[in-house]
Design a protein that fits this description.
The protein is of the alpha/beta class and about 300 residues long. It has eleven helices and nine strands. The mean pLDDT is about 90.
Length: about 300
């Protein structure tokens, strides 16, 4: 007997809810059907997945299967959604994954212009961090990706778009915001500093050593900005990020820190709507990114 997708879905739902009754309600099946499916899966594996019949605690094997099955189900569900979306988009579908700073900087204008020129083409845009952009491209869930730093991926074309300087991001009322001289790394990392997922792109060894002392790490852009807006926190981000909250935060160069963030356009070589993807990427490549960043920051 082969392991079927619905077996994994049944198991994951029971593992998440901790009981057969709630799992049956979620899946629209009877408790006996759920129980039988779990038994079939355990018989196939030759080991128990739950410590007891109460289904509220996983065995070591159950923990491992739960982790692997969740990943497989997410990919399966994303694939089904992509297939259905393609079927419902006779004029084409473009799936884009981008880091938030670029998505909010330029996409409102470029998407409007593109859709005016390509009537009927559908666009799906998700903003996420660079690793998930790469994951979306490699698993076939995105046609276009925009990510920080350089990445070499088989089957994905890469085009440099722009670079922007790293600097201090803080409230206009923070003491470091009003100083005449640019703040130093030591002053920043000792002033309620928040580490974020872009900090690892800065190669300066003094900076990397200093941020290890940070007690707070935030990897969601909106949550990070909300904390910095609270006036007593600071972080270090690329300049293009400041436009997300440009009326509430300021960007300052950091003394002795020349590091820059490099942003690349990544294009899947295999995509069902090549003409539309190429047209959208052509628009992206014609943008004067330095001017866009400068205007957004001011």
């Amino acid at each position: 007997m082969a392991i079927k997708t619905e077996m994994l879905r049944c198991f994951c739902t029971v593992a998440q809810t901790g009981n057969l009754s709630e799992a049956a309600t979620r899946l629209g099946r009877t408790q006996s059907a759920i129980s039988m499916t779990l038994k079939q899966l355990e018989n196939h594996l030759g080991q128990r997945l739950f410590e007891s019949d109460r289904k509220n605690r996983l065995t070591p094997l159950g923990e491992q299967v739960f982790h692997l099955a969740r990943s497989e189900l997410r990919q399966f569900d994303d694939t089904i959604r992509a297939i259905e979306a393609s079927a419902n988009a006779p004029q084409g579908l473009i799936r884009i994954a981008s880091v938030p700073s670029v998505a909010s900087l330029i996409f409102p204008r470029i998407i409007t212009n593109f859709m005016e020129q390509h009537h009927g083409t559908k666009i799906e845009l998700r903003d996420t961090h660079s690793q998930q952009v790469i994951d979306a491209l490699t698993t076939g869930q995105a046609d276009i990706g925009i990510a920080s730093s350089q990445h070499h991926i088989n089957g994905v074309q890469q085009i440099p778009l722009f670079s922007d300087q790293f600097g201090l991001i803080c409230s206009p009322h923070h003491p470091l915001a009003t100083r005449k001289q640019p703040p130093t790394l030591n002053e920043i990392t000792s002033a309620n500093f928040i580490q974020n997922d872009l900090c690892h792109l800065i190669e300066d060894p003094n900076f990397q050593t200093a941020i290890e002392m940070s007690h707070l790490s935030i990897f969601n852009t909106l949550s990070l900005i909300a904390m910095v807006k609270a006036e007593n926190w600071v972080t270090v981000l690329p300049q293009a990020v400041i436009h997300i909250a440009q009326n509430d935060l300021i960007f300052r160069e950091i003394s002795g820190l020349p590091d820059r963030r490099y942003v690349s356009l990544m294009i899947a070589e295999k995509t069902p709507f090549r003409r539309q993807v190429d047209a959208f990427c052509d628009m992206l490549c014609k943008i004067n990114w330095n001017d866009a960043i400068h205007l957004a920051a001011n």
